[in-house]
Amino acid sequence: MTSTFRKMQANPNQPSRLFLDASHTIASGKNSGIERVVRNILSECGRWCEVEGLPKPQLVTHCSDRFVAVDERQAGRFEKLAAVESNIHRFLPRWYSPLANWICKWTGSNRIRKWLMPQAGHLGIFKLPHSAWSKSIQRSLSRQAYAIEPNENDLFVLPDAYWTKRGVWQAAAAARMNGATIATVIYDLIPLTHPQYVGAKRTEGFRKYLHQAIENSDLLVTISQTVEIEIKDYIEKNRSSLVSVPSAIRHLTLGAELKLVEGDIRPDVRQLFTKDVHRNPYLMVATFDPRKNHHYLLDAFDLLWQTREDLRLCLIGRVGSLCEDVVQRIRNHPRYGKQLFAFHDIKDSDLQHCYKSCRGVIFPSIVEGFGLPIVESLWFGKKTFASDTPIHREVGKTDCVYFDLEDPNSLVDEIKKWEQIADVSNGMLPIRKPTTWEECSRVLISHCVSAQQSIKSRAA
């Protein structure tokens, strides 16, 4: 990859300025897959681009139909906004929680509890003031920030969740009108291929986002070859309704390593994940969402617990949408707090401790664009069990144990096999080191720079 960049240095068509947009992640208190991807790309590109002769990446967001630069002071304001969303309870007065809990118990209403005592990553009744605060920052940004004046030597990389920030496309269109190159990362097509998991309204919203991404990008970069094939097929089938299509579509492989984070480990996490790996829980890391398939995993462990009461299971992830049934099943489970555990608001330092110490990682998701927990598990050298889907086969290769989603006994049998040999042999553990975030970011920028050079060469 280094030689590739040295060739680029000699090419007069390389970008004079490189911009990375993080309109969603910069103010997000969530730490799910997309936020982790964006933060790692921002970090890695900022570390090596200048060394390789490329412009230092500039963090931008969009505001008033244009891209604006985000300096350290402004980034700090967004970080405070994100911290509040991450866990609103840390910022409330001491008297609030006892009073809110009393009201929730008195009414017995789950809806009221959802509003007064929101889960980590949610805002409940505080969404309105949080939104007002966010708009205030945006207004201030539009007055004080440096507005980018795009030109034909500029490269804008858009790796964020733009189905939540669709205003970005007006800024992208304006930049392209001035000759800039726009490269957009596409994570998946799940709302279109599996609309039952998002609902009709979100499916239609995602369709509009996807059409805007296609029509306003010179390059689309997908996070797997599977998604690349899907997006090419979608464009071919919908070409008549698209105003324009990108010059190129490429794919990359996401990074796997969790950055080593210094920090205290929560006492309840440390108590659960001890130094004795053989007694520690199996781990699932995923947002609580129907397609992540928590019910399947619980069904499998209910079968396992009939003969192996010593096995434990820990579920980590923020509470998403349409998942009240599985959350209630966990809270009302007779083994909850004994062999079954759930955390919705742990920090990166806690998460890496869980990965390091767990008995194994299980990922029963029905559909993914990539499946980040698979490579994170392999990075820590853990026994990894994944549902048998094409994307998981692409990501996990021969390093995972695959199970049938139609039958929980398929997973039960594989765990039993592992339990028979786990204490006496490590020969079955994965040894391949997955892609790093540095390698991932280098491939991304390489695709983007090559696309820009190709466009400028054709224009010349």
Explain what you see.
The chain has 460 residues and is an alpha/beta fold. The protein has two domains: 2-70 and 145-255 and 438-459, Glycogen Phosphorylase B (Rossmann fold); 267-422, 3-Layer(aba) Sandwich (Rossmann fold). The protein has helices spanning 2-9, 33-48, 72-86, 96-107, 110-116, 127-144, 168-177, 190-193, 200-215, 225-237, 267-272, 294-304, 324-331, 348-357, 372-379, 390-396, 408-422, 437-459; strands at residues 17-21, 58-63, 66-69, 154-158, 181-186, 219-222, 248-251, 282-285, 313-316, 340-343, 360-363, 384-387, 401-403. Strands 3-2-1-4-5-6-7 form a seven-stranded mixed sheet. The longest helix is centred in the C-terminal third of the chain and has 23 residues, at 437-459. It is globular, with a radius of gyration of 23 Å.
Strand order of the largest sheet: 3-2-1-4-5-6-7
- CATH topology-level fold name of the largest domain: Rossmann fold
CATH homologous superfamily identity of the largest domain:
Glycogen Phosphorylase B
Give the total of domains: 2
Q: Unreliable runs, pLDDT <50, ≥5 residues?
A: none
Total of DSSP H or I helical runs spanning 4+ residues: 18
- What kind of sheet is the major sheet? 7 strands, mixed
Number of E strands:
13
**Which value, in Å, is the CA radius of gyration?**
23 Å
Strand content: 5-15%
Structural class: alpha/beta
Highest-level CATH class of the largest domain: Alpha Beta
Shape: globular
**N- and C-termini, Cα separation:** 27 Å
Tell me the helix content: 40-55%
Mean of all residue-level pLDDT scores: 88
At CATH's second level, what is the architecture of the largest domain? 3-Layer(aba) Sandwich
